[in-house]
Amino acid sequence: MQTVEVRPANDTISDGFSFPEGLRWRDGTLWFSDMHTGDVYSLDPDTGELNKRLVVDDQPSGMGWLPDGSMLLSLMLSRRVLRVFADGSTAIHADLSALTDHPVNELVVDDHGHGYLGTFGYDILAGDPLVQASVYRVDPDGSVTLAADAFDFPNGSVILPGTNTLVIAHSFRPELTGFEIEPDGTLVGRREWARLPEGTTADGLAVDSRGRVWVSSILTHEFLRVSEGGEVTARVHTPDRLAVDCVVDGRDDDVLYVSTSNSIQPAETTVRLGAIQRVRL
């Protein structure tokens, strides 16, 4: 199959952010965190209307929703998961501060309310050498269990539609790792779901209705769509921009929303060059 090569046009639908992360599609709306400002937004992609939904004194990252509609949000620095109720009130849902000394990161929530939360494992911003890290399961009651380990910086994660398959990225290993989710949330059947091109630095993941996974390769400035096994079927280039995260339009597999920024260093993102762009394949 020929790879579709796309270079984003100037279809920026919102900008002025520091480091937009955790892109999600829910009920026709984009949700995302601005990691280095503590803001959580929703964005109407058709009108460009932007709403600030929440501000936290932390670095917000991944998010997901429980069956009752309340949102779970990863609080990176305090290493906790925040629950945001429909009325806007909040409560701490889970606390991982005793389990890891380094930030928590991406979060995905299944239909039964089990969350899967990755950890850094070391101080990446200081340039420390890589230490393998873990993914934890956060149950609906807020209890936390080790779900899987031996990740080279676990990052984006998705659940393939119509399945119980969880796919997790390694930022510093060219692999997407797959698991099956048991009814109690336990992960089984660990395997290499896809082998990525050498040099890929996977950050956020997204999945379309056909189970094809988009990989945000942050340091190589591109977004890759891959099938199980690793065939690259589309590639979106973001020259001179970090390819941070992405999400597929829930109405159209050929529309991808991508987030980009100028740097991973918080002090360098105060210029607010982060943006959300729409890409039509």
TrEMBL record:
<dbReference type="GO" id="GO:0016787">
    <property type="term" value="F:hydrolase activity"/>
</dbReference>
<protein>
    <submittedName>
        <fullName>Unannotated protein</fullName>
    </submittedName>
</protein>
<dbReference type="InterPro" id="IPR051262">
    <property type="entry name" value="SMP-30/CGR1_Lactonase"/>
</dbReference>
<keyword id="KW-0378">Hydrolase</keyword>
<dbReference type="InterPro" id="IPR013658">
    <property type="entry name" value="SGL"/>
</dbReference>
<dbReference type="InterPro" id="IPR011042">
    <property type="entry name" value="6-blade_b-propeller_TolB-like"/>
</dbReference>
<dbReference type="Pfam" id="PF08450">
    <property type="entry name" value="SGL"/>
</dbReference>
<feature type="domain" description="SMP-30/Gluconolactonase/LRE-like region">
    <location>
        <begin position="19"/>
        <end position="261"/>
    </location>
</feature>
